[in-house]
Write a structure and sequence with these properties.
The structure is a homodimer of 340-residue chains.
Chain A (H helix, E strand, L loop, with lengths): L13 H5 L6 E3 L1 H6 L3 H6 L3 H5 L5 E3 L3 H7 L4 E2 L4 E4 L6 E4 L1 H11 L3 E3 L11 H21 L7 E6 L5 H12 L5 E4 L8 H11 L9 E3 L5 H9 L4 E2 L3 H7 L2 E4 L2 E4 L19 H5 L2 H9 L3 H27 L3 H4 L1 H4 L8
Helix pairs in contact in A: 6-7, 7-8, 8-9, 10-14, 11-14, 13-14
Chain lengths: 340, 340
């Protein structure tokens, strides 16, 4: 799922985004609450109509942003109080408020409001946050006003403590939710810990329900999580890299400012069907990046989103034809046997 | 003609640009010479292939930029010497060099290298520059290596001195060039002087050849120049305004940051067929501008280019059906009769 924080996947029109075939687009409740506010989005007819995106959408709960971006916050059982970075006004965000905002925004999938502690954090703090996240989930379920139109996913917390992850996953599984997410990862911990957390958690969540690993979107982490049963990802990497003049090409990151691209008249990836690769050379992209032309960021973001969507689609196809662990051995850290 | 200075009409893909139906796209020789250099563009197969634009293109001669942007320049009969703003190296730009660069860039229309004096300038300086521009034109014609593929236009100078303009126009008309431009306008003089210059000059240029008013692209100035016989315009205004969060709507400039647009769910112009107006509301554009989202600049540039192309197309249609002076009286400063 490409990330459209402020109701725009940065630098891309909905038409360009659609050409990459993402199944879902994500938007951020915290940011949209601050600007333009859910009332305006609701009056516009909801997030889809406001931003001109016809496909499925997901909003996060704002929990991650409240905990990671806000200064001066106080956490209590009722919820979190923080100062708006825009005007300094005190904002109280509770499970009920998050769901009310998400009901107004109108995405197809909405997320429970969770407590997302930083990394590292001690076991006592993580245990308290995990228990509170469960109680807040119950409040979210009770507050949800549009259950027929919006699927509410619960979020497994538990930090790097695998026993806490397992018990949280089991408790959530018993609630028979529409979908499940693994949260509190990609918060600064080493990738190896992400793999351990996902391996401990994902298999305990119902296989028949969508399982979503939040904030993860690199090749290796996605491939390994898929091997553990994860179905959904979101990540700002493809668009953020694009805005920094970098391309994702078959698992590598290329800085287009590199002198070797100045006279390289091939497309980024000759096998790629995206608009960028079908129409422009590495030399042209390098020129645009050198000139800091906005079109560079658009064309690179378009390619990068297309590339990661293609990566997951190819995994999906390989699973359907039972070739996943052999075809993606490179990303799964499985030794490639010599007879292939 | 939308301006694509560095081989990109800022913030727009060629596909988006094409949707606005511009007949020609302009690029700047001076800028492309400095970055990436005409050798790379030539190796890429020329400007069209380099930037992915399939329609006609025009390059200016670099004269205007050398005179307006460069510090530390010295002007002599041979040409102009200036320091590259990129690396401080001395660059000599002569009529022959400008044409060689433009031959390498490969646009369909190329421009003679002219001396474009600032405004205001005294009559002696303007007279000398106008005479030199004529001698440089002859050198450009002699230096042109691809006359079958690239149309070389001459440029009428003469400042605000209408007798100098007239004699320069007559001298150029006698050369039977492929096309003619009126240069040295839109350099800071009052709009009224532009009208006077165009009225004095355009009718003396052959009616059967394209007549191009350089650097002009506002509603009133275009309408009046067309009334004097001008066929072509270029201007950075539609894209520059777009990048500043402003829209051109039926002759007006709107700042999308204005509070009145926050909850205005109409398109910019309900009669406009551009992608922006067909898909997004003023409220959404206002939101994007407030967030400084790049998509704002793309969507506004797209609309603004479409709007000015439509304006000139509507004038063309009104001329063909003999309704120009009545339909566009508002822009021609003709009193509208009360029975219409």
């Amino acid at each position: 799922m490409p990330v459209g924080t402020l109701a725009t996947v940065k630098t891309l029109t909905p038409a360009q985004l659609e050409s990459t075939n993402p199944q879902v687009v994500l938007a951020n409740t915290y940011h949209l609450h601050l600007q333009p506010g859910e009332a305006i989005v609701s009056k516009a007819g909801g997030l889809h109509r406001f931003m001109g995106w016809k496909g499925p959408m997901l909003t996060d709960s704002g929990g991650f942003q409240v905990f990671s971006l806000s200064q001066l916050r106080t956490i209590a059982e009722a919820g979190v109080t923080f100062r708006s970075p825009r005007d300094g006004l005190l904002i109280e965000m509770t499970p009920e408020r998050s769901i009310a905002i998400q009901n107004a925004l109108g995405a197809d999938i909405i997320m429970a409001f969770d407590e997302c502690p930083p990394y590292p954090a001690d076991r006592t703090a993580i245990e308290a946050a995990t228990d509170r996240t469960y109680r807040w989930l119950i409040r979210c379920l009770n507050a949800h006003q549009r259950p027929e139109e919006q699927a509410l996913f619960g979020i497994v917390q538990g930090g790097v403590y695998l026993d806490l992850r397992r018990s949280a996953a089991q408790a959530l599984a018993e609630l028979d939710l529409v979908g499940y997410a693994i949260g509190g990862v990609s918060v600064g911990e080493p990738p190896e810990l992400i793999h351990q957390i996902v391996e401990a958690t994902a298999p305990l969540l119902p296989e028949s329900k969508p399982r979503y690993l939040m904030g993860v979107g690199t090749y290796r982490e996605m491939a390994k999580a898929i091997a553990s049963g994860v179905d959904m990802f979101d990540c700002v990497i493809p668009t953020r890299l694009g805005r920094h003049g970098a391309a994702l090409v078959r698992g590598e990151r290329w800085n287009l400012k590199n002198a070797k691209f100045r006279e390289d008249f091939q497309p980024l990836d000759p096998t790629c069907l995206c608009y960028t690769c079908q129409n422009f050379s590495r030399a042209y992209l390098s020129h645009l990046v050198r000139c800091k032309e906005v079109l560079a960021y658009t064309l690179l973001s378009l390619h990068n989103v297309n590339e990661l969507v293609r990566f997951t689609r190819e995994i999906r196809e390989s699973i359907l034809s039972d070739r996943f662990t052999s075809d993606f051995a490179q990303w799964l850290d499985i030794p490639v046997s010599s007879d292939r």
